[in-house]
Design goal:
With 80 residues, this protein is mainly beta. Helix content is 12%, strand content 40%. The longest helix is centred in the last third of the chain and has 10 residues. It is globular, with a radius of gyration of 12 Å. The termini are far apart.
């Protein structure tokens, strides 16, 4: 598996009720909950929801929490 990445899960964002130990919120209404995958790691995983998108997105990093936080901070929404 890759060291880090972003992918649509195919799951509906509004049907995900898992509460991650840490959360980020953006002004556009996007939201990410994140923590150690499976509660033990070593990989960090975030569930990302974006307003207007029905798909839940995964963002992951095997390079640590700071790297995952940087990936999330660097994301930008692109409108067609």
């Amino acid at each position: 598996r890759s060291a880090y990445g972003i992918a649509g899960t195919g799951a509906l964002a509004d049907q995900t009720h898992y509460r991650w130990p840490k959360e980020l919120h953006w002004a556009d209404g996007s939201h990410a909950g994140y923590g150690l995958e499976g509660g033990t790691g070593p990989q960090y995983l975030a569930y990302l929801t974006v307003p207007g998108q029905t798909c839940l997105y995964n963002v992951w990093s095997r390079l640590g929490e700071a790297h995952l936080q940087q990936l999330l901070a660097d994301l930008r929404r692109v409108r067609p």
